[in-house]
Each structure stands twice: as structure tokens, then as C-alpha cells.
Give the backbone structure.
Amino acid sequence: MVIQIDGLTHATLREAIAAGRAPGLLGLTVAPAWTGGRNGTLSEQRTTAGPGWASLLTGTWANRHGVHWDTSDERIDASTPTFFALAHSNNPVAKMSAVTSNPLYPTLLAADVQSGAIATAVDCASDDACVTQRATTAVLAGDTLVLAQFGAPAIAAAREGLRSSGYDAAVDATMASVGALIASANRRQSNDAKDDWLIIVTAGYGLDGYGSASGLQLAENKTIFIASNKALASEPGVGADAPKDDGLTRLAATTDIAPTVLRQLGVAPGQDFEGIALQSRTSLRELTAVTGADKGSIVLSWMLGGDLTAPVHVLRDGKQVATLPAGTTVYTDAIVAASDGVYSYRYTLVAGEARASLSAQIAYVKPATLAPTLRNGLTNYHPLDALPALDVLGASTLAPRAADADGGTLVADDGFMAPYAAKALRVDSRVKNANGTAGYRLMQTGDITANPAVSAFTIGFWVRTDASCSQGVSNGGTVLGNKNYDSGSNAGLVISVWASCELRFNAGSGGTRADSNGYTLSAGQWAYVAMVVDKAGLKMTGYVFDPVKGAQTGSTALTTAITAQLGGLGNGLSLNEDGTGLYYQRWSASPRGAMDFNDLALWNRALTADELASIFKTAKPLSSLIP
């Protein structure tokens, strides 16, 4: 039996059990878990009802199940079967039921009802008492699989918030209903020695502090729970608080529930889930796929736990490509393609009893040559492979904005291919002084952004966000800028990162603004970013070359008023801050954090798309062109 409670948070559940408000759940193990896919990757999905329900049913994320919104026209992709469909295929005579409160959910079960996989589907239309009654009837009638969904806590949280008497009352009533359902399963098992019930209680999505399902990739929205009447070997974190950082994704996920249910029902492994059966003695977590530095390979990595005695098998699109020694946690898959382009693959990893899949995409690039013309018009060049960060051309300085707030360190993986691989600069805005000043600042001997004699200029650099683009939430994070970014209309320019790893290019005059938005970064991967400003032609062009999303470009028109104010505050270009060095101090809803930079360069001309593409394709530093 699977019980989903919309609006019940992990913290609230633990509080209710500890306070004796949920006596029927005392025998369950409770662990924090997560939903929403991985931010900035192909699996990212909204942390709301529809996508979460589809992930529960299919063991996959939205890029597979196809449900992206909470609208009645959404349907689960026919190529991604639910656990009802798979269980029915394995045992066509088994009777299965679904009883739901949320009016949205029956539409996502319609295909299983039509096929006969679900024998009884009850839409209780927001009546949780109906859910209790009909689900209990299904349990006592001998159903093999029962899915029950309650919604009263979500309704109360949305109306009154999490710290309200109405929410507490809804939680208490739901705890009593769930306790009654569990008791009915226990009663049936005591009457039939052949019965062996697995009971899972979970939530479809997390809530923010206001009781809202905002859909964002914040930790509170991603945090759910998985409670069970059985000890599950591969469920970590039992009895622990939910992590507030990336450690959350090292725990069980909502995509683990479908394979766990099917293993209990005796369905043989081999399905295409993005989670694992939690009964497995081997745990397989944190599957990631990133494009290799050569732009022609995909680097897979994962975490293993538990029984590590079995070899690791790697399958690409269902065909085995490698068998690796036991305990291996990384594999580089060389891609062979006829031409440049974006290619998609489906990888499956098998280690002992654990099996999990993930989607990968690569902007494949055949070997290329770094354009020698990139030497022309180069005014400033910081390789960023050593500290202090010197300008090879001696025409600028790059240092912390405040001597007592040096957030700069070197990281070893700069994204370049051998023999050019060296180090890169990490600027951490969490390192700040007493005033809140942070970031690095580039000061040019002659500022090309403000010099009226310069008719065009280009700013280009490699950048890598953290694993979730966390600084891009709420009010965005400044990647590079020379303006006060409280408003895009303020004088100067900025490149910023926002929710879902969106990159934006902006310029302002002090009263008007020009924007080019909608570029996307892949979280935790090196991308090449360039801003090309044609003052004479009154045009700003943005370029983002991403190893997964490929080449992205766009432009916007400028005015003479804007081009006259591109120098911004006149005190340099900041890295991981705006021109004041106090952006994160003023906008605390945008978290401070680390951004990695490499090969920062400025030109006093407009680079061409081909020149910029050659930087990305070759993965070579500009220093390889300089004698």
C-alpha cells in the first residue's frame, strides 16, 4: 500500500509522531527524501503536485514521464509505464485500486483505468473521509496494491500557513485516517498468513515557509519523506533531520518508490527507473552525466553503498558498453558521431541488486582549431590558473574587492584538455567582510566599456556554477557586472544567473534598459559565455556555449543613452558580485556561494560567432595562441 499525503512536510510528520499525535504511525521508519529532479539537469522538474504524482507512479522525472504542470491536459507519456501497468503485466489477475482526493490526479491515472491495470479508481474530489473509507474497503476486499492519496493538509497550508490551528487540525485528522488504513492492512495480514504487506507513506512535494508549493528548486520545496513499515536496506537518513544543502540528493528519492513497490510484488528487475528498489543490499545514488572536456565523451559518475562485491555494468540505450570492477564510481563513454550536434542517450547502471537509469545529452563537437585571429584586439587576458591573478598583457588587475574579503581559491579541474589542463579561479561570495562586501574586481588601465573611442568590445570567459545554480534563485546572482544591479535600468552592464540556471544579459542607462534572456547553463559544468557589444551598431549579443544545451545566442537593441553609460559605476567589473560588491548583502534571498571562472578575456572589437565557437570547441586556453 502506498499512501501519499499532500501538504505534510517531513518536519511536521516527525513533530506529530514525537508529540503522540500519530499513534498509528509509531511503527514506521521515517526518513527525509527528495523530489524535483536535479536542478540544472535534464531531470529537473517543478516541485508541485502534477510532476510529483507522475514521478511517484513511474519512478522517473519529467523528461521521461512528460508531466510538467498542474493542469488537467497533462498526461503521462505512454512510453513510461506506471507501477500499476507493470504490476498488471506481471500478474493480470491481481486486483489494484487507486483512491485520490486531489481532482488533478485521476487524469494521470486514466490510461491505467482504461487498460484494466487499475480495477477500481475512486475520485473523492477533495473529500479525505471518502479516501479513508474507500481505501479501507479495497484493503479488506483483498486488493494486491492500493494507492491512497490525502489532500487536507495541503489545502489547510495554502489557506492558513504551516503554523496555524487549521493546518494542525488537518494533519491530526490525516494522521488518524492513515493510522486506520495501516490498521486495516495489519488486520488483513493477521487473518491471512500468506499476506506480507509493504506500506509506504510519502508526500508528493515540499512546502515553503508560507505553506506554498512554489515549484522552485529550494531545499524546502524538494524535501519530502518516505516512511515504511519495513526496514529498507538502501534507505538512508532514518530518524535524521533533512539536509538543507546538496546532501539532500544523497538520500532516497520519490523515484525509488515505484521500483520498491514492484520488487515487493515480485516483478523482475529490468525496468527503466531513475530510482532503485530500496530493499536492495547495494545502493546506487547520485547518478550524474557531464560532457567531457574533449566535447566528445560523456563522463558518468555515481555513489555506491552497502554490498560492493558485484561488478558495475554500464548500458547505453539498452546495450551494454562496459563492465567495471566492483566499487567503480566513474566511467567515461567515448561518443562516436558523424558531425557536430546535440545527441541524447539513456544510460543504465547495474550494481548487484541495484539498477538505475538517467538521461544524458551532449553538444558533440568534432576536433577543431582555435581561431588565431583571437589575438587581434585582445586588451586584457587573465588565464586564472594562479594567484595572484595576473593579466598576461599587463593592462589590468584582478583582486578581491576588499582585502579582508578574499574569497578566491584555485580549483584543479579547469575544464581544459591535456596538455593545457591547469587550474581555475573559484570566487566564493560567502567570504565577506563586516560590511558584506565580497567578490573579485577587474580594473582595466583603460576601461573599454567606458571609452568612447572603442566602438565595440567583447567580454568572454569560462564559468561553472555550483551543482544546483543555487545563487540563481529569487533575485538572481551576478556573474559579472559593473553596475548596481538593484535594477536592470541602472547604468552599466551585467551577466546574471537566475532560477533553473537561466543566464541573462543586461545593459542600462540609468533610466532605460536592454535585456537578452533565456540562455541556459548546465549546473556544475563548464560553459563559455561572451557578451559582444557593438556600440556603433547599437546592438548587444549574448553567447552561451554549454556542453549539454549547445550553442545559444541572442541579441537586443541598444540606445545611444545606454552605450554612453556602459561603464556603469566606473569602479571595475566584478566577478560573483555587482559593481557595488554588496549585491548579496542587499538581496539576501539570493544565496551567497561559489562560482568558478577561467580564461577571462576582453577585446576591443566584436568577436565573430565562429571565433567564439572555436574557443568552446577546442577547449584550449587563449594562452596557447600567445608566444
Residues 488 and 508 are 6 Å apart (CA to CA).
